[in-house]
Design a protein that fits this description.
two-stranded antiparallel sheet; 17 helices; single chain; mainly alpha
Length: about 325
C-alpha cells in the first residue's frame, strides 16, 4: 500500500467516527424508546467504539462489552494502522513525495506495536529511512537517533530555504509535532520569510521569531532562537549538507538549550507535551478538540498519560469514560 496518501487517507478514516457522533447527537434531541433501551444503547456504544478505534463495524466481542474491549483494541493491527495514519496527518501539512518522508507514520507504528512510551517518537534512538526509490522504509536502532527528527529524509523535507541556512521550518516542526504549536504568518512583508534582519526587526515577525538581541524578551517558542541550536543547512548544486550550530546556547521552551536533543527534551518535559497528547486523543476519538465541559475527562487523560507514558493509556482513559458513549 502506498504511503503517499497517508495524510488524505487519515482524514477519510476519521469521517465514519464523525458521522457516528453526528447521528448520536441527533438522536439525543428527541427521546425515544430506542434511546432508553439498554440493548440499543449498548449496540450504539459498540458501533462508536469499533469505528473510532478500527474504522470498521463492530464485532460480537466488542458488542458484548463495548468500553471493556478498548484495552484489547489498542493492540489491534487495524487500530495501529489507523492511529499511525492519523498522527502522520496531524504532523505533516501534506503527504510526503516518497513514503520515507512520512517518518512519523513509520515510527508511530513501531512505537505502538512495541508498546513503547510515546516520548520515544521524539527522543528514542531510532533512524527511519528507505531506499533510493523512497520505499521499503524501515525503523532501525541508532545510538545517535532522536526519534525521527535526525532521520535524513525528514531533515531534507523540512530543511527550509532561509538565506543564512537557519532551519526555521525544522524548528517549527519540532515544536508542532511535540507540543502542538500552531503559528500563522502575520505579515507578508517582502523577504520577511527568509531574511534574518527582516524577521527579527519587523514588528509583525518578532512575536513569533524573537528579536535579534539574544538577551531580549521573546516568546518561549521563538523560532529564530530555536533554529540557532539546530544544524545549519548548506546547499551546493543538488548536494545538501548540515553543519553544527555555532550560536548556542539559546533560551527556548523556558530553558537554555545547546542542540536539537536538548531542545526536544525541553519540549517533552514541558506541560504542553502531555496536554497535546490528550488533545490528539480527543481529535482521534471525536474528530475535534476537547470542549470546556469535558475538562474533567481531559484532566484524567493527562494524569493517566503522565502516570503510564503511552499514547494507548490516554486513549483508553477517554474511551472508557461514561460520556464517550452517551
Amino acid at each position: 500500500m502506498s504511503v503517499a496518501n497517508l495524510g488524505r487517507r487519515a482524514t477519510l478514516l476519521l469521517l465514519p467516527a464523525l458521522l457516528v457522533g453526528a447521528v448520536m447527537a441527533g438522536a439525543g434531541k428527541k427521546a425515544s424508546a430506542e434511546d432508553t433501551d439498554p440493548t440499543a444503547k449498548k449496540e450504539r456504544c459498540a458501533t462508536r467504539v469499533a469505528i473510532a478505534f478500527t474504522g470498521k463495524e463492530t464485532t460480537p466481542a466488542i458488542s458484548a462489552d463495548p468500553q471493556g474491549s478498548v484495552d484489547a483494541l489498542v493492540a489491534d493491527p487495524a487500530f495501529v494502522e489507523r492511529f499511525s495514519r492519523f498522527i502522520n496527518h496531524e504532523f505533516n501539512e501534506t503527504p510526503g513525495a516518497m513514503e520515507k518522508e512520512d517518518a512519523s507514520y513509520f515510527l508511530m507504528k513501531y512505537v505502538l506495536e512495541n508498546k513503547l512510551p510515546y516520548k520515544d517518537m521524539f527522543l528514542g534512538q531510532f533512524k527511519v529511512d528507505g531506499n533510493m526509490q523512497g520505499n521499503q522504509t524501515t525503523v532501525t536502532a541508532d545510538p545517535e537517533g532522536l526519534g525521527y527528527f535526525r532521520s535524513q529524509p525528514w531533515l531534507l523535507r523540512y530543511a527550509g530555504n532561509e538565506l543564512e541556512g537557519y532551519k526555521l521550518v525544522t524548528a517549527y516542526r519540532l515544536m508542532q509535532n511535540t507540543v502542538g504549536l500552531t503559528l500563522v504568518a502575520s505579515t507578508n512583508a517582502p523577504g520577511a520569510a527568509i531574511d534574518t534582519a527582516a524577521r527579527t526587526s519587523n514588528p509583525g515577525c518578532v512575536g513569533c521569531h524573537g528579536p535579534a538581541d539574544k538577551a531580549g524578551a521573546a516568546p518561549w517558542f521563538a523560532l529564530d532562537r530555536a533554529a540557532r541550536v539546530l544544524t545549519k543547512v548548506r546547499r551546493q548544486g543538488n548536494t545538501v549538507t548540515f553543519t553544527p550550530p555555532t550560536e548556542a546556547p539559546q533560551m527556548v521552551a523556558d530553558k537554555m538549550v545547546n542542540n536539537d536533543k536538548e531542545l526536544v527534551q525541553a519540549l517533552v518535559d514541558s506541560p504542553n507535551f502531555s496536554f497535546n497528547v490528550c488533545r490528539l486523543t480527543f481529535k482521534f476519538l471525536y474528530g475535534r478538540a476537547e470542549n470546556v465541559c469535558e475538562s474533567k475527562v481531559f484532566d484524567a487523560c493527562v494524569n493517566e498519560f503522565k502516570s503510564k507514558g503511552t499514547i494507548q493509556s490516554a486513549l483508553v482513559s477517554v474511551a472508557k469514560d461514561p460520556g464517550f458513549c452517551q
